[in-house]
Specification:
The protein has 447 residues and is α/β, with parallel strands linked by helices. The protein has three domains: 164 residues, inorganic pyrophosphatase (n-terminal core) (Alpha-Beta Complex); 140 residues, no CATH class; 109 residues, Diaminopimelate Epimerase, Chain A, domain 1, CATH 3.10.310. It contains 18 helices and 14 strands. The strands form three sheets. A six-stranded mixed beta sheet has the order 9-10-11-12-14-13, sandwiched between helices. Helix 12 packs across helix 14. It starts with 8 loop residues before the first helix and ends with a helix. It binds manganese (II) ion. Manganese (II) ion binds next to loops.
């Protein structure tokens, strides 16, 4: 039924239950998350439902707060699909009158008799590395109709958006990639993981990877390229093999010198998943979606996934704007560092919607690799916290989801997410106590 994807029977069963909800409803409510994975999942469902001639109403949210669920409850929906969210709110979803399915890869709280949960965690599949929300949405889409296999590049963009591809695709994600390649929906080729038209642009404007001393400083990049006798305006596409190797080794050395983990350095030369139908790589698509979501243009993200050339162009402009803001913050963090506690480090995010991205990039490329990083901002008089660790720290016991949940609940807040990346909201005025509580939990985890 899922084509060539092999899934545990019980996981297939949960997908079939979700399919039943879709098939039996005359009209569906779809709610998804605003990040690249959530937007990919939403775009896949949007296209699949349209092809199935289903009426639906899509909303993209930054999170699923109790207030959001109350609003949805009052709409009198027949059936609701929650994408990239819902597993953490299963209790509240059970109160809904509508039939509800949560296609989520975040750690679930418990099983539910009422709410259909399609979640890899229930089936010994790692929701952090083997299946994202876009993966699950895609599995449902091809179950609805195998013609939806052409949406596989969007699933790959979601997977990459959630950084599940790092160190190589795994599990269900790998299965989708293999079949998508076989069906010519994507072409895999090795390349330098930089975006931009000319080399000087690609390095100077690069926030991911962020090159300490080069990113955001064009003059330094010009000097760097001059030292290699490489003309700065060389188009990225025309870089010959000798220069590509030279540039790759120089940039790798820089990343190592700034203390990046080996898996981060390895990512510099990476498998690019070229999408012939869009003239983009899946990583590029993920990047565009990320910018759309963070810059409050979620609808544009959906039309980018539909392959609209004008939307792709507009999203490119948004990305430039978005990168500029992040670049300014990263250059500042590079100069000033983060505030240190015994077992973690933190900084003030430039604005709430950028805190996750800033936190992730600062953790990966700039700050102390031996401590997780928290980025703080204030939303509606509440402290909003984004946190990131490294896979290495997670292998040593770090679980930011548990740490933030425990610390936030101590002060009447909420927290959760993944072991390597989590968030929390805490009542204002409890900042210092909260940070101390996180520090204590992390100390125990990494002991
Ligand atoms: Mn996700």
């Amino acid at each position: 039924m899922s084509g060539s994807i092999a899934l545990p029977d019980e996981f297939s069963d949960s997908l079939k239950q979700a399919l039943k909800i879709v098939n039996s409803a005359s009209q569906l409510r779809v709610v998804s998350h605003y990040d690249a994975d959530g937007l990919s999942a939403a775009a896949i469902m949007t296209i699949a439902l349209t092809r199935a001639h289903k009426r639906f109403h899509l909303t993209i949210r930054k999170g699923l707060e109790p207030g959001d669920i109350d609003t949805i409850a009052k709409e009198g929906n027949e059936a609701i699909l929650f994408l990239d969210m819902g597993s953490g709110q299963v209790e509240a979803l059970e109160q809904l009158e509508a039939k509800a399915a949560a296609l989520d890869h975040h750690k679930p709280i418990r099983k539910s008799k009422k709410v259909v949960q399609v979640n890899p965690h229930f089936h010994a599949i790692d929701g952090m590395t083997e299946a994202s929300a876009a993966t699950i949405s895609f599995l449902l889409a091809i179950m609805m109709d195998p013609c939806n296999w052409d949406l596989s590049p969007i699933a790959l963009a979601g997977i990459i958006g959630d950084r599940q591809h790092m160190g190589g695709m795994k599990g269900i994600n790998q299965q989708i990639l293999d079949s998508a390649t076989e069906k010519n929906h994507v072409v895999v080729q090795k390349g330098l993981n930089l975006k931009g038209l000319t080399i000087v642009e690609a390095i100077a404007d690069s926030v991911d990877p962020y090159f300490v001393g080069l990113s955001g400083r064009k003059d330094n990049v010009l000097a760097f390229l001059d030292s290699m006798r490489l003309p700065p305006d060389t188009p990225m596409g025309t870089l010959d093999e000798v220069y590509r190797r030279k540039l790759t080794s120089m940039l790798s050395l820089r990343l190592m010198g700034q203390g990046c983990r080996p898996e981060t350095v390895e990512e510099l030369v990476t498998d690019l998943h070229w999408i012939p139908s869009m003239n983009l790589s899946a990583a590029d698509l993920a990047d565009l979606l990320n910018a759309c979501g963070r810059m409050d243009h979620e609808g544009l993200g959906i039309s980018v996934c539909m392959g609209d050339p004008e939307s792709i162009k507009l999203a490119g402009e948004l990305r430039r704007e978005y990168n500029k803001k992040i670049m300014e913050k990263l250059v500042k963090i590079e100069a000033e560092g983060a505030s240190q506690m015994d077992h973690m480090q933190f900084f003030q995010a430039s604005e709430p919607s950028l805190s996750g991205a800033e936190c992730g990039l600062a953790m990966q490329y700039i700050l102390d690799q031996s401590k997780p990083t928290l980025a703080l901002s204030v939303v509606d008089n509440k402290l909003k916290v984004s946190s990131r660790g490294t896979k290495h720290l997670v292998s040593k016991g770090l679980d930011l989801s548990a740490a933030l949940k425990k610390a936030a609940e101590k002060f009447g807040g909420v927290g959760g997410g993944h072991a390597v990346a989590a968030g929390a909201t805490v009542p204002e005025g409890k900042d210092l106590e909260f940070l101390k509580a996180v520090d204590e939990v992390v100390a125990l985890q990494l002991r």
